[in-house]
Amino acid sequence: MYKPSDKTTWKGRMDPQDGELGLRWHQVVELVDLSREVEDGHGSFVFLGFSSDEGVWRNQGRVGAAGGPDAIRRAMASFADHLPEGIRLFGGGDVICANHRLEEAQAQLGKKVEMLLRKGYKPLVLGGGHETAYGHFLGIRKGLQVGEKLGIINLDAHFDLRSYSQHSSSGTPFLQIADDLEADGLEFHYLCVGIQEAGNTRKLFQSAAERKVHYVLADDLHTGMNTEIQDKLQTFISAVDKVYLSIDLDVFAAAYAPGVSAPTALGLTPQVVVLLLREIISSGKLLTVDVVELNPAYDIDNQTSKLAASLIYQIIQKWAEK
Ligand SMILES: N=CN[C@@H](CCC(=O)O)C(=O)O
Ligand SMILES: [Mn+2]
Ligand SMILES: [Mn+2]
User: Fold this and answer.
1) Which enzyme class (predicted)?
2) At what angle are helices 173-183 and 132-143 packed, to 10 degrees?
3) Are 1 and 51 in contact (CB under 8 A)?
4) Where are the alpha helices (DSSP H) in the chain?
5) Under 8 Å CB-to-CB from 294, ≥6 apart: which residues?
6) 41: which of 9, 89, 199, 256 lies 20 to 30 Å off by Cα?
7) Cα(248) to centroid(ligand 3), Å
8) Residue 59 alpha carbon, nearest atom of ligand 1
9) Distance separating alpha carbons of residues 221 and 273, to the nearest angstrom
10) What values do phi and psi take at 73, rounded to 5?
């Protein structure tokens, strides 16, 4: 099911006395109906929601992430417009997972992502549980040119490499992706940053090793960015052609991100994540981004939705230069 954005989802403060200089995102965002073929994007940004917590429910988690897209949009609406000349923002509405039909919703998300990439947009997918990633990937896979190598960077406390032999969930997307790539004879390049040892069983570390997954522990980022981690990122990025960046908000310490499906006490600070984002975006290889696992039902004073929105702001300002 798909619901295009309407103006009621983009509302915020207005400063009409300041004219053009007083504009905010809710005043510049243009609504686009993604149930139809869209015009060429010319590098413009498009927000596409994936309203689902079906994967979280299947993964024994606390539900609420279906409210993520709406909460992130509300938190972004009043951002001051500092977009470079000619860069446009589009509100692309939401793919909604209804009646537990996750696989259908993921396929629909994939089709929309595929169209956006084909038309030259920079997608920002707003989750949803981390099951968002598999739908997102279905579109990325179709949008890649022949021979292009995809690198996936996941900022996450968890590997999300669980077995999906019983059912897929928010804990399985990257194993699904690995298997799909392998079935097509393609390599799986996957880097997880912010991993919590206590949050991943030995089985998950074993799966990560079997799939040659690269990772950085959260514990190694508590003193900030360092050259070893920069080198690791650079080496990973230099081996691929395009980067899909997935940001699971549970990578942050719960003090910054209480409103997630599975909070992390000793997670990362926003400051170190901003440095990581700069490093990734400056490569010029970023293809598409998602921000997932926001659970507004457990948020405190919109802290987590504001953090998600601020990350998106940072990403857009930097990515617009590329
Ligand atoms: N999206 C993934 N979620 C985690 C949840 C961990 C937990 O519930 O503690 C995972 O499956 O590993
Ligand atoms: Mn995750
Ligand atoms: Mn996680």
Assistant:
1) hydrolase
2) 30
3) no
4) 25-28, 54-58, 68-76, 102-118, 132-143, 173-183, 202-210, 227-238, 270-281, 303-319
5) 65, 67, 68, 71, 72, 127, 249, 259, 260, 304, 305, 308
6) 9
7) 5
8) 11
9) 9
10) -60, -45
CATH number at residue 217: 3.40.800.10
SS3 label, residue 128: coil
Task: Match 């975006």 to its residue by tokens.
Answer: 281
**Residues within a 6 A CB radius of ligand 1:** 59, 61, 130, 158, 160, 162, 170-171, 262
Pocket test for ligand 1, best of 56, 59, 134, 176 (most atoms within 8 A of CB): 59
**Per-residue confidence in pLDDT tens, the chain, 322 aa:** 999 998 888 999 999 999 999 999 999 999 999 999 999 999 999 999 999 999 999 999 999 999 999 999 999 999 999 999 999 999 999 999 999 999 999 999 999 999 999 999 999 999 999 999 999 999 999 989 999 999 999 999 999 999 999 999 999 999 999 999 999 999 999 999 999 999 999 999 999 999 999 999 999 999 999 999 999 999 999 999 999 999 999 999 999 999 999 999 999 999 999 999 999 999 999 999 999 999 999 999 999 999 999 999 999 999 998 8
The answer to whether residues 257 and 72 touch, using CB atoms and an 8 Å cutoff, is no
Q: Atom 4, ligand 1: which residue's CA is nearest?
A: 171
Q: Please report which ligand is nearest the Cα atom of 218.
A: 3
Which residue owns the Cα nearest ligand 1 atom 2? 171
Give the structural domain span for 251. 2-319
Number of domains in the chain: 1
**Helical residues (DSSP H) of 119-166, grouped into ranges:** 132-143
Eight-state DSSP code of residue 38: P
Handedness of CA 139, 292, 207, 278 (dihedral sign): positive
pTM: 0.98
> What's the rounded Cα separation, in Å, for the pair 130 and 56?
8
